[in-house]
């Protein structure tokens, strides 16, 4: 009887411990839920504003440098084709292969793959400047292909007419081809701008700063879905504003 009583006491003690642990775990879960619903915006607001301007800084430099380098490569791809105004088969195939290799790489993988190059050029692989460097690389080759595709769509008859009038290759490219494709190019750059905003959000994984880093650090990792939601809404508004401007400019250009 004594043995049975001891076993019963041990069993009851085990049940009591299990109940205590369950209550403790539920209390922790409750605290996490309550914490997620009470966002300290007074302290987070300055950080969020800084993150917003950091995103604009990264996106601005990327669209400026990547857009310029991509435009140059895209024009060279178009001009060096076998039927181009500056036909050069070795140059075309070199640039074409380079674009085909780099452009399809997902940005998050490109960040890791370009680590040694980023370290050599920027001196670090983390931070806003390092993330922007990789973003410029990705944007350059994406822009190059979009520029080439839009220039190829220009009516060859227009180019031949300019050639017949004695226009130089550079004048044909600048005054004829690019002007004819200006509307689609604006839409293409708008698309790239939105893609760069996406890149800036992913750059948060390497401490790149910006709204992506803000959402990950103060939202996802802190179990505060309000922060994540607000950061997402800001990005959506930014993208919609850029798309509106791009569509308006393209429409104005194509009406001329």
UniProtKB/TrEMBL annotation:
It is a multi-pass membrane protein. Keywords: Cell membrane, Membrane, Transmembrane, Transmembrane helix, Transport. The chain crosses the membrane at residues 56-79, 91-114, 120-144, 181-207, 227-250. Gene3D superfamilies: MetI-like. GO terms for cellular component: plasma membrane. Residues 52-246 form the ABC transmembrane type-1 domain. Signal peptide: none annotated. PROSITE patterns: ABC_TM1. The keyword Transmembrane applies. Pfam families: BPD_transp_1. It is found in: Cell membrane. CDD domains: TM_PBP2. Its main location: membrane. GO terms for biological process: D-methionine transmembrane transport. InterPro entries: AA_ABC_Transporter_Permease, MetI-like, MetI-like_sf. Belongs to the binding-protein-dependent transport system permease family. This is Methionine ABC transport system, permease protein. It comes from Corynebacterium kroppenstedtii (strain DSM 44385 / JCM 11950 / CIP 105744 / CCUG 35717).
